[in-house]
Amino acid sequence: MEAVIEEGTIAYDNWVKPGSEVYRQFWIFHVANPDAIINGAKPLLQQKGPYTYLVRDVEKSNITQLGNTVSFFQPNQATFQRHMSIGPEETKYTILNLAVAAAPALFDAPILINTYIRTSNSSLFQERSVKEILWGYRCPFLAEIPDLVMPDKNTGVFYPYNGTSDGPYIVFNGKENISKVAIIDKYMGESSLSYWNDTYCDMINGTDAASFPPFVDKKVPLFFFSSEICRSIYGDFEKEYTLKGIKLYRFVVPSTALASPLINPDNHCYCTDFVLSRNCTGAGVLDLRECQGGKPIFLSLPHFLYASDFIKESVDGLSSNKEEHETFVDVEPITGFTMHFAKRLQVNVMFLKDERITLLSKLQSDFIFPVLWLNETAMIGDETANMFKSRVTVPLTVLEVMQILLICLGGVMFLACSITLCVRSSKKKKGTV
Asked: Cβ(297)–Cβ(349) under 8 Å?
């Protein structure tokens, strides 16, 4: 069966390495008024991008078949695509100083933080290139901190990335039960997470969204797990449409997935800070501190889509809209293969007003501060679409036609037999009379 993850099937070929090119587009939030923010003004942000990288262009590694499951690592690789970007990755913007903003959350030592800021000539904001922002740079502030406390002097939103791997994953290959194909059994050796201190929120549900079990039902949400957001999430059916001659179902991550526990009680365990969430009434952001080693990283949809008004109103320059900023997967319903998707996320850093730290003493308020947002996307190519139609769609269509013909033929034969029986029965009655 083509949906089983084993060598020689369509599922395996597209599972080992995506049949379509996967890109990550980044938009950086340039800070237009850095000095004013330090002195109490509201941040004014300007979106700059896209800067595009080719990702997922290498095969999964350490693939091992384990009976009804298969284990693997997902290598991380990003290659800059100048022709798909607004400028070179050396372009510089004024952004939040990641290390300085995160320092109070990592070290409860305000006197030392003030000293390190002064001796490194650092500020709450700095000018950095796109390449440095994304993939890392040597930070002067971190360089001042003793090696025993902070041995790595580099920082960056995705540092380290190239040359690393995500996993290991163990997923069901579908050999024994096709309804479980591609569903994650274990991640990093565990069948559940440990970030949320709750059985429900720590569940690893669904697949990695690259594919799903066959015979997708519109009425059933699609669950998928992402290590980047440290949780499982789901998409609800939105529409049916045709892409390159293939019928697809679109599933979209709904507002309820990031809603406050007042709106969606299932989200109660994602509320980890009563102050920042305003007693768990806030919506639209996910606190990742526990799974980021204490770093104050908060995730949201781009431009705070579906977030509470008090979060959106803390900064100027953002404007969310569903079409541009939502996350979706488009799935071929019979096989469960993902043919088109867009994973859109915004990375924010939380920092608080602190009278003990000079740079934070005059802030207007506490901030969940946007740094950048990304769109990881892919669409099935023409060659792959034609191959899929020839190996899957056409045979299925022929099978459906044959079924219809057989049903019609069976109906005709049944009708003929019924008529024959009626005629014979009528003749016997007349003969008896």
From this structure: yes
